[in-house]
Each structure stands twice: as C-alpha cells, then as structure tokens.
Amino acid sequence: GISARKAQAAMGASALHQHARRHKNIAAANSGFLPSPAVMAFTANRRAQHTARRHTSHSLRQQHPSAATTLASSLLRSCRSHGGCSGGSMHWRPSAARCMSLSALHAAGGDIRVGIEPREESEQDEVLRPDVPPHAQPHPQPLVSAEGGFNAIFPSVVKVFVDYTDPSFAMPWQMRRQTKTTGSGFIIEDRRIITNAHVVANQNRILIRKHGDAKKYPARLIASGHECDLAVVTVDDEEFWKDVNPLTFGETPMLQDPLVVVGYPMGGDSLCITAGVVSRNDILSYTHGNFRLLCTQIDAAINAGNSGGPAVNKDGKVVGVAFQGYDEAQSIGYIIPTVVVNRFLKDLEQHHKYTGFVTLGIIYQTLENPSFRKYLGMTDVRVEDLPAGVSATGIVVCQVDPSRKGKVDSDSTTNSTSTVLKKRDVIMAIAGNDVADDGTIVFRNMERVGLSYALLDKFPDEEVELTILRDGRVLNISVPLVPSNSLIPEHQWDKTPRYFIYGGLVFTPLTLDYLREEFGQRKYMSNAPTALLQLLQEYFKKEEGEEVVIVSQILASDITSGYELKHTRVHKVNGIKVKNLQHLVTMLEDRDDLPVSQRGLACDNAANPGAAGGGAAEGGSSSSTSGSSGTEGFFIFEMDGEQELVLQKEVVQRVSQTILKQHGIVSDRQLA
Questions:
Q1: Which residues is 311 bridged to in the sheet?
Q2: pLDDT tens for each residue of 32-65
Q3: Nearest CA to 159 among 270, 74, 250?
Q4: Other CB atoms within 10 A of residue 565 CB
Q5: Full-model pTM
Q6: 81 an active-site residue?
Q7: Calpha distance 127→116 (Å, rounded)
C-alpha cells in the first residue's frame, strides 16, 4: 500500500508540475503535495485537448496546408475561451455569421478564418471532427452562390478618393489646408454611385477606382444629403462602366439577419469583407448632420474607409450603407437602412435636387408619469371619441415652431377653426400611427421606434394628419411639414462661413460648427459661454430670417484697444434689434435707400423720434439712442450682460483698410 501511494504521488506531482509550468507557477510544482482528484481530472482533460488539437493540425496540414494554421489557431482560442472539450472528439458548430464569412472569402480566393463555437452534439448538428478531412466536412450555406454570385458584387464596389478643404469658422476669411481622405461606394442603376455625404463634403476633387482596376476615374458630385449622410456621384468616362453590374436594394434587415459589409477600410488598399448580424433598428442621431433617422446597428466592424460601402444580405441585395461606428464600445457599427436610402433617391427623382427631411416643428415630453397624464385629461378620454386604432396615449408638446400653421377638421361637434399646435397639446397619433406614452410607434412585429419614423416618407410642403387632445377634446388636425427651422444651424457642410469685419470687430452668425471649432468637438457643451449655450435651448426661429449674430473676436488696433469681449452676442446697434448678419451690415453702412428704421446712425433716429422709439420698443429702453445723449456719429453695440462697445464712424472709415492689411485679410466680408 505504501508503494502504491508513493507511485500515485509521484505521478500526480509530475502532472501538476507540467500544469504549473504552463501557468508559470513554479512554487506550486515544487511543493510536492498530493494533488486532489479535481486537479488530476483537470490534467487529464488538458492532455486530451492537447492531443486533439495536435491531431487536428496534422490532418489539416495534409489536406489544406494554407488553412491549417489559421483553423488550428481558431480551435485553440475557442478551447481556451470556453474551457476546452471532453475526450478525443470535439463537437463544434460554426456560427451563422462566421459561416458566411468563410464561404464568401473562400469564393473570393481570400484567406480562410473560422470562428467556432462549442455546443452539445445532436443528430441535426453539423459536426466538425479533427479526424475528418476538411473537404469532407459539412459546408455552411454560402452568402450567395459561388458561381459568380458574390464575385459579381466586387466590381460594383468602388474606392473613393477625395481631396477636400474645410473652412475655418474661427477665422472665416480663410480656408484650412487641403487634405486627402478615402471612402467606399457602390454602383446602382442609371450610372450612379452611392457613398456617404461626409466622404465627399467640402470636396475639391473626387476620384473613383473599381475593384481590380488600377485606374482612377474623375467623378462628379450630383447631390448630397447631409441629414441622412448620403451622396450620389457619377463618372463621365464611358470606359468606367464596362463590365459593371449595378447593385439592387433589399428590404430593411430583420433582427439577427446575417450580412456582409464590403468596402475599403484602413489597414490596406484592397477590398475588405467583414461579416456580422443585425443587432437592432432604432431612431438614432446621424453624427454628420445632427439629424435623427432610422438606423440599423450591426456587430460587424466598420472602420474609417468603410464609409459608403454596401451591407449585403444572403441574397446579394444591398440592405444598408455603412456610415458610422461607436468609439466607446466594441463590435458596434451602424448602417443606413434601405428605407432611408430609397427616400433620399426618391427625393432626387421627384424634385431633381435634395430638399431635405421634415419635422413636426415641436419639442415634446413623454407622458409616462400617471399624475401628468391625469392633469392633461388623458384618463378621461372615452374610447368612442378616438379614431380606430388610436389609444389614449401620446406625448405632450412643450415648444412649437412659430412658422408652423395647421387646420382643424371642421364639423358640427367641434365647431373648430384654423389653428396651430399649441403648448400642452397631446399628440396621440401621427399619420394613423398610434403614439405610445414613451414617444414610440410600432415599426414591425415586436419592434418599436421613435415617432419621427412616421414622417420618413414625407417631403417638404406636404401635410400630415395628427390626432391630438386639447382642453379635453379630441381633434384631428393637418400640419404642414418643412425642414428643420433651428435658430442655431446644426451643420454648415459645403457652405462658406459668412462674416463681416467692421473696425476690427469680426461679426459672424452663431452655428454649431463655430462652437465645435472654438471650444472642442466633444467639449463645447462644457467649455462654451453659458449665454451662447442657452440659445441652443430656444431652438426655433421666432421670425423669418432670424439668426444670432456674435462678435467672434476683436482684431488688434488702436480703435479697439481696451475691448476684450469675444464669443458674445450682438443684441442691438444704436437701439435697433439685430435681425441677422445682413441686417447688421445694412445698418452699419447706413444706406440712404433704406427705411429709417433700418439705418444705424443715431442722427437719423434723432431726426425721426417715432422710428427710434419703435426700434427701442422691440427690446427695451431707448435712452441710449436719443439725439441728446451725444451718440451722433457713433455706433453703440449692445452685447450680452448689457455690456457695450462703441466705435466712431469717422475713425472706422479711416483705419478699416489698415486693419485688414495688418492681419492679412483680403476682404472685409463674405455674406453669400
């Protein structure tokens, strides 16, 4: 008995030593104690795994030497991540997405990479065994037929080369230096190429190269939709269109649908294919245009350069366009679903230009709080008062775009008249879509998305039917739809910044692009002045053509010495409210062909007291604009915090050109 125990101890110590060496635990190997049954079982299992992996690698080298190393490495990684397998036979089943990736790459003649997941064996399972040659293993269903199906897609996926020059919103009289970028695109019918708007934004030149072709063809931009981040370009060279088949669109993919993203991401110059599945469909913000539209999330990698490439389903149909990722997480990419792409293309076909996406023109609040619902009378709504398919749920209006007008259906019971949406109106249905208390509507099956999806197929100047609750009554109204009417423009792509320099004061409209450039792309909400950030909450313009004019900086000169104000709004000039940049220029230049109320000189206001008083009534006291106050020949700029800047007109006219020359500025304005 003693001899047997010694022998067992020796065997156990040897096994433990081998296990400890693998895990760099030499102290445990030298301890010499008797291993427990659990340790012995673990050691035997590890030996079985090692033997199986060695057998697999040997078999693959004999049949497919080029793929043996990659597949064995995948098996090893999967064993380590899933705790191994039991015995000498391993039961594996490739995931659907990885099967497609393998088939697609195999058909394309690329390297084979297999992602393998362990699972229990059943009669219906596809079993991958190390003792069976790879050519005898069961093959997954390919993405599309190997007889030219997937290969036929490749020539229709192009690489886009762009030279672009972005403007400077901090110094709007000059441009930044020219830069190069690349993206992807794909060919559709009528000799058009779809790509992302952010790929070709502010472009100077676009070149297109087909897969397998070394030549780059000059391309021409047809239209860009910055809200949906889509653009259409074309190539005028006839040679480019030889042996090219346009891709066709499929339906918006369902959850867990497998797909492949094709494009030219960073890390190489040739075509790249990544596989994944659909994770969700939801209304999300499109980063490029700051607009919320339907978006499809996938788990395939989307990197810089993938933008504009097609996402293709198992039938070879395009189901989306790759356009953005999520930096703070892994395996999250986003594609523009075909319902948005088709809406963009339909806009171009109907209007021969891009007219934009529409909104309701409201800021709303959800109604998930029972007290709030009862206060608004939602609990008192009778079922018979509601249209078919509409329930007593919805969202409440907080702010309304003043430019929106609507019509109420007139009937004998409501005796209603023309109206607009009002604060505390409860919107219960949009275009027949029942709105839930959380602000969502039914998308399909069990999926729900934000209520703006109900407006996706609408165009500017069209109307949408709303069912609302107002003052305890259920009404049906028609509201005209127009593009966003934001007081602060949300993007300025493909536009030249506007500015006007007067006496060293640089005036420019406030935009989000200005805030991002001056205070940081991601930190402007914490770094920008509070007075400017508060304007983002106002959201809508109160009148046609209204915009916020600010002094972005003050150029150094003798006449501006002592003035340190910048990033500050200009409210009035000599008591007259500033409507927009063009209005400001008109006042400062004191044109005689304009009404007195639009001129800026105090002497004009003094000669017409009624006009001066009227101008002051818009915004407050007129004490600073009276002729007796000694303001004749001066411009008084009323800024945030009731601070003032004063310039003498005669001095400004004398030194303006000198100031521009000192700072290397060619022109004092850019107004178009």
A1: 261, 320
A2: 444 455 545 555 565 555 555 554 444 444 444 4
A3: 270
A4: 19
A5: 0.72
A6: no
A7: 11
In terms of residues, how long is the chain?
672
pLDDT tens track for 96-120: 444 444 344 343 344 333 333 333 3
**Which tokens is 163 given?**
């030279």
> For this structure, is 410 an active site residue?
no
- Its sign, for the CA torsion 43, 44, 50, 53, is negative
Q: What amino acid is encoded at 638 in this protein? A: E
Taking the C-alpha atoms of residue 127 and residue 110, their distance in angstroms, rounded to an integer, is 24
198 part of the active site: yes
> What integer pLDDT is reported at residue 149 of this predicted model?
55
The one catalytic residue in 19, 156, 229, 552 is 229
Residue 40 dihedral angles phi and psi, to the nearest 5°: -60, -45
Cβ–Cβ < 8 Å for 357, 375: no
Residue type, 273: I
Using CA atoms, how far residue 98 sits from 164, 270, 319, 371, 415, in Å, is 37, 21, 19, 51, 63
DSSP state of 4: H
Q: What is the pLDDT of residue 146?
A: 42
Query: 3-state class of 241 per DSSP?
Result: helix
pLDDT tens, position by position, 324-339: 988 777 789 999 999 9
Which run of H or of E encompasses 429?
strand 426-430
Separation CA 166–CA 189 (nearest Å): 31
Of 455, 447, 398, give the one whose Cα is nearest residue 430. 455
Residue 271 pLDDT level (bands cut at 50, 70, 90): very high
User: Residue 322: its pLDDT value, please?
Assistant: 96
Which residue in 103, 307, 484, 552 is the catalytic one?
307
Does pLDDT of 507 surpass 80?
yes
Note the pLDDT of residue 617: 38
- Locate 517 and state its tokens: 């450039």
> Of 92-106, 375-389, 468-482, where does mean pLDDT reach its minimum?
92-106
Structure tokens belonging to residue 520: 């940081």
Q: How far is CA 30 from the centre of its chain?
A: 59
| Active-site pick, 101, 103, 198, 288 | 198
